[in-house]
Amino acid sequence: MLKMKSIILALSVFLCFSFNVVIGQNNYVRIKKGNDGWHLLVNGFPFYVKGVVGDNYLEKVKGFGGNSIRTGFKKEQLDKAASLRLNALVNLPARAERDGMNYNDTSEIRKQTESIISIVRKTMGHPAVLMWAIGNELDYIPPLEPFNPAVWDAVNDAAKAIHRIDPNHPVMTVIGTSMMKKVADIKKRCPDIDLLGINTYGDIYTLPDTLEKYGWEKPYIITEWGPDGYWEVPKTPWNAPYEQTGLEKYHCYESKYLKAMNRDNAQCLGSYVFYWSGFKQETTHTWFCMFDSTGLESPLPGLMHRLWTGKNEK
To answer: Other CB atoms closer than 10 Å to residue 127's CB: what's the count?
Structure first.
């Protein structure tokens, strides 16, 4: 009987700490490198990101086996995530050159950094916070336009400022996969970011080789992935992109997850599947959406349940 009580007590302690992995007050998040690669630790426990991009249908994220969302910094969004024992990669607003930001203007950079730090101060104590992401695809510029690498200096200054006030949550910036030679610039100019966020679609299979080619040695998270993009698929004679059928998308998602987000990848700490939050018109209203405008789910959430948990689809 005494032995049984000891087992029950030990199990209770384990469950308590496991609960804190997801939603503990002021999560203590660290990235460490071991003999078998990089690991994300939340309150001392290993945590692999099984996430979604969006802040709708969060009950289904939890019910299907997900554990994280990629979202903004609004309190109501984070409160909802925390209530479901989900955590959040929090997007911090940094403007891109395509949106009119001038990264040669020190005054504008200072204002942006001050705004970012103000958000971090107000938000860093929230139990849902997992990590910070400075901007989204700041590297993307219109074709044939020159790119200003000073953007990475500004990102690094912001990361350094975040670390000064919040040492408990890692910091990344998020890039796309166009012109991947920029990774070498990020490595050189952004020593203070802890990892890289990468939005990748058709080229997800070659991502590890590409990062190695340009010298990226820190970990990364796939911050967006989904079907092949409309910019990657064949086109009709009148230049309209061919959208994958529902079955083709199903197999596409499955193949990408199994090959790119497997645990044997020593650098990848997880991923956020796109797009979980209802209606989104991008080329078509069905290209990326995992739900229709009424909230009816496609087969893809059920697939993610199987991929996240190993259990049969709901």
So the answer is: 19
Query: What six digits make up the tokens of 221?
Result: 């998270």
Say if pTM beats, i.e. exceeds, 0.85. Answer: yes
Residue 44 to residue 15: CA distance in whole angstroms: 14
Interatomic CA distance for residues 129 and 53, integer angstroms: 15
- Rounded CA-CA distance 164/158 in Å is 10
**Segment 102-127, tens digit of pLDDT:** 999 999 999 999 999 999 999 999 99
Strand partners, 46: 41
Query: What is the set of domains in the chain, with CATH numbers?
Result: 48-309 (3.20.20.80)
63-72: buried (b, 16+ CB within 10 Å) or exposed (e) per residue?
A: ebbbbbbbbe
Q: Alpha-carbon distance 80 to 62, whole Å?
A: 11
Three-state SS annotation for 89-134: EEEECCCCHHHCCCCCCHHHHHHHHHHHHHHHHHHCCCCCEEEEEE
